Amino acid sequence: MSIVEFIYLAVFMIGCVLVYFAYSFYQETKYLLDDGIRTKATVVDLIESYSDDDIMYKPVFEYLDHGGNLASFESSISSNPAPYSIGDSVNIIYSKDGDDHRVESFWGLYRWTIILLCIASPFLIIGCAYLLYARL
Fold first, then answer.
1. Is the pTM of this model over 0.90?
2. Is the Cα dihedral 113, 118, 119, 121 positive or negative?
3. Phi/psi at 81 (nearest 5 deg)?
4. Residue-level pLDDT, tens digit, the chain, 136 residues
5. Using CA atoms, how far apart are residues 106 and 42, in angstroms rounded to an integer?
6. Which residues contact 69 (CB under 8 A, 6 or more apart)?
7. Within 10 A of 110 (CB to CB), how many other CB atoms are there?
């Protein structure tokens, strides 16, 4: 095996690993949708973070869990402009043990699956195309 074939095989394998992790994130989301608890949450705060000349806003959600206790969580996504205003109500889904919280939206649920598949696609296409071409 030449060094070029080894490099393209490595590129293909990196793509396969990324697809595996994308599938893992998809399975986590599927499990959360099947067994999670849906409720309404209210935006109670917008946390500001600064980077260079830009201000990013990260919402903090508060909701009543299945036991009637007041719980809150900070979104993992920040943006500018702020995605929500204080007092907005959103649908969320959380795991029964309370470890996983997500806003019920396409991006909120499938963000990592999409990102990893977008990164994996060129690796798979380039690696697989070269390996197939080299074999023909």
1. no
2. positive
3. -75, 170
4. 788 888 989 999 999 999 999 999 999 999 999 988 898 999 998 888 887 778 888 899 998 888 788 888 888 888 888 888 888 899 999 888 878 888 888 888 999 999 999 999 999 999 989 888 887 7
5. 19
6. none
7. 16
Spatial distance between the Cα atoms of 103 and 97, rounded to a whole number of angstroms: 17
Would you tell me the crossing angle of helices 3-35 and 106-135 to the nearest 10 degrees? 150
Distances (CA, A) of 10 to 20, 23, 116, 125, 131: 15, 20, 17, 13, 11
Q: How far is 43 from 101, CA to CA, in rounded Å?
A: 14
In the 3-class helix/strand/coil scheme, how is the chain assigned residue by residue? CCHHHHHHHHHHHHHHHHHHHHHHHHHHHHHHHHHCEEEEEEEEEEEEEEECCEEEEEEEEEEECCCCCEEEEECCCCECCCCCCCCCEEEEEECCCCCCEEECCHHHHHHHHHHHHHHHHHHHHHHHHHHHHHHC
Type of residue found at 107: W
